């Protein structure tokens, strides 16, 4: 009796199947972390280890959402598409994994050069995506071709439908930390000339010292905005400034702080404060005044004039001196009732008193 022809029922390429499965599952974990980071003001990822290994900084970056869909959701759906194609031994796994590998390289470069931090889970997805492409490319001669209609439906149509559902029906929870329109809370300036936002008669006032170029400050400010949304009649946030350099003597001195001050002159300090945290970290000392004016709704010519005015540099330097007087060296830093607190100590006070 002759042996059955094993080629009539080809088995999947297991390396490709496992690689795509890792992409899908780890992306699902990342999506859960993405939701938790934005919706839980006290959430801190266990992989937020240092300034360069910080999942929170990556999650809260402006590139964590693409075309109205969180990047982890893109990764999970892309991983699903690759998994189905690999399981069916469809040649579609090659172009799908190539796209995933290219996206992984571009996202890693974005983390390194703009966010200034990398995410452990993200790197697992990136490595798995690249390896999946390598495995698929090496096995390309053994894959079933051409792709059938059933392959296209199972591999592409179902993820596309799920993506459309996410895009239409999932509320944009990540937008809650940005204020580019009308600010929803009272605002003012305290006796030291620092802008404040929140309760007009606060139960608790927090002076939050930040630097617009600091990824950790972006995280801290986002979480403080969410705390404020939960306690608008009890909490007041005062924006302290701790720029990394003195703010006079050069056009590149404190460029972001000067933008914020000039936006304040046009009545939109807090909108610009939000915009800067979304765009400045990882961008060096470059500031796109035209984009800032357009996005926030400012007079561009007046913003340019004010930003270059030596008087604005002097105002910025006064605010920087305030941080030095308070002995604030690291950012973000918080002062409540005259006591300087770490972020976790500050969150503990908020939980106790609000």
Keywords:
6-stranded mixed β-sheet, de novo design (two linked rop proteins), 55% helix, alpha+beta, two-stranded antiparallel ribbon
Secondary structure: elements and pairs:
Elements: H1 14-39, H2 55-59, E1 65-66, E2 69-70, H3 71-87, H4 93-115, H5 120-138, H6 149-169, E3 187-189, E4 195-198, E5 204-210, H7 215-230, E6 235-241, H8 255-265, H9 269-279, H10 289-296, H11 300-308, H12 310-325, E7 333-336, E8 339-341, H13 343-353
Parallel strand pairs: 5-6
Antiparallel strand pairs: 1-2, 3-4, 4-6, 5-7, 7-8
Model description:
The strands form 2 sheets. This protein has a 6-stranded mixed sheet, with helices on both faces. The protein has a two-stranded antiparallel sheet with strand order 1-2. 44% of the residues are buried. It contains 13 helices and 8 strands. The chain folds into 2 domains: 6-176, Up-down Bundle (de novo design (two linked rop proteins)), CATH 1.20.1440; 187-353, Glutaredoxin, CATH 3.40.30. Helix 1 packs antiparallel against helix 3 (71-87), helix 4 packs antiparallel against helix 5 (120-138) and helix 8 (255-265) packs across helix 11. With 354 residues, it is of the alpha+beta class.
In the predicted model, the low-confidence regions spanning at least 5 consecutive residues are 1-9
* The CATH topology of the largest domain: de novo design (two linked rop proteins)
The profile of the biggest β sheet is: 6 strands, mixed
What is the residue-mean pLDDT, rounded to a whole number?
A: 86
Question: If classified by CATH, what would the architecture of the largest domain be?
Answer: Up-down Bundle
